Amino acid sequence: MSFFAALREDVATARAHDPAARSNAEIFLAYSGLHAVWSYRLAHRLWVRGIRLPARLLSQFTRFLTGIEIHPGATIGRRLFIDHGMGVVIGETAVLGDDVMLYHGVTLGGKGRHGVKPGDKRHPTLEDGVTVGAGAQVLGDIVIGAWSTIGANAVMGKDAPPHSLIIGVPAHIRPLRPETMDAARGVHDWVI
């Protein structure tokens, strides 16, 4: 995908997810979640080429500007949308599929250093279409199945199958009911 096609896709994704979006120009100029994702893409390119210090410095500068910290070593699919974004943290070994949506205050983090060696996967994997509500903490090398929803302020530390509703502290997993699905987009029609 070309650079400009990716920008257009990101703006369209923001427009689809945010009913408050008034224009493409507003999204392009004022959405810190998009700015953080765009900066991540550049930092990630540097990171995978072994240019680690400049990649980290760029990610920290972006954190200063946007309040969103995305480690350049993370693997992120297409159409990530970070709504509001302040306080979002995405760890180094996190993997995000396509069409993931994160609200403000989300942490995709590790559980600690005990028994962890350099190079180990220690952050979560969010498969395609996962939505994570405001303030949720998703911790450790776990997999959240496709099209699952994690409720606001949930604390999740175990795997969840696809199409799960994950709520509470500690989080409880419940299957999503098919009647809540928006068949056209594969997402659930409710607010977190």
From TrEMBL:
Query: Any idea where this protein resides?
Result: Cytoplasm
E.C. designation(s): 2.3.1.30
The organism encoding this protein is: Microterricola viridarii
Tell me one GO molecular function of this protein. serine O-acetyltransferase activity
Matching CDD domains = LbH_SAT
The reactions it catalyses are: L-serine + acetyl-CoA = O-acetyl-L-serine + CoA
Q: Which UniProt keywords apply?
A: Acyltransferase, Amino-acid biosynthesis, Cysteine biosynthesis, Cytoplasm, Repeat, Transferase
Metabolic or biological pathway: Amino-acid biosynthesis; L-cysteine biosynthesis; L-cysteine from L-serine: step 1/2
As for family, the record states: Belongs to the transferase hexapeptide repeat family.
Output the GO biological process annotations, alphabetical, semicolon-separated. cysteine biosynthetic process from serine
Entry superkingdom: Bacteria
The GO cellular component terms are: cytoplasm
A Pfam family the protein falls into: Hexapep
Enzyme class, first EC level, given as a word: transferase
Q: What is this protein called?
A: Serine acetyltransferase
Q: Does the keyword Amino-acid biosynthesis apply?
A: yes
